[in-house]
Design a protein that fits this description.
Number of strands: 7
Largest sheet: 5 strands, parallel
Distance between the termini: 33 Å
């Protein structure tokens, strides 16, 4: 029996790759780093900034990494016009809501999630939202998916997780959710 559907946001429900990469590249450049949006998308998609910023800015300290992430967060909405909802996934989630609660599980910050969902008029769609700010251990750790199942009062082994990135697949798998890998044609 399926008790809940848990979906990733970036790359699964909403195509945010260009917007996310562009916002991070802008912020990284302000701190002396250099990376193209294409390289960012290829190497760091789905990963928490706490993991990739030390790789991109290895000489910077953790406070600088945090400042880069905060600058990206403050500028992200400027790039929302580069995002779009994957209608097929939204249709699946909408249909699923008829028989099970639907949650969102993402590494994105709470602020970014709320602003992006509001931009796409999805702010009241989900029964639970777990953002990167809501957990100690971000994806690929199991904690985000376990937290969502716990908040919904369901057993994670009876949940379907929709994921597009290896980081997210690893997170959902290690939590013991049933993973549906979402691939979009580009």
């Amino acid at each position: 029996m399926i008790e809940a559907i848990l979906s990733d946001m970036d790359g699964t429900l909403i195509d945010t790759e260009k917007a996310n990469a562009s916002a991070y590249c802008y912020a990284i450049a302000q701190y002396g780093g250099e990376i193209t949006p294409e390289d960012f998308q290829h190497n760091y998609a789905g990963m928490s900034w706490k993991r990739f910023l030390p790789q991109i800015l290895p000489d910077a300290d953790s406070e600088t990494h945090k400042a880069v992430a905060e600058l990206k967060k403050s500028k992200y909405a400027d790039f929302f016009s580069l995002t779009s909802v994957y209608q097929d996934v939204l249709d699946f989630l909408t249909h699923s809501k008829q028989f099970a609660p639907v949650g969102l599980v993402t590494t994105a910050s709470r602020q970014a999630v709320e602003e992006l969902l509001r931009y796409h008029q999805l702010e009241v769609f989900f029964d639970v939202i777990i953002s990167g700010d809501d957990v100690v251990n971000a994806k690929p750790h199991a904690e985000p998916y376990l937290a969502a199942a716990n908040m919904l009062g369901v057993n994670i082994v009876n949940c379907i997780a929709l994921e597009d990135s290896q980081v997210g697949i690893d997170s959902a798998t290690s939590a013991r959710a049933n993973v549906f890998i979402v691939k979009h044609e580009k």
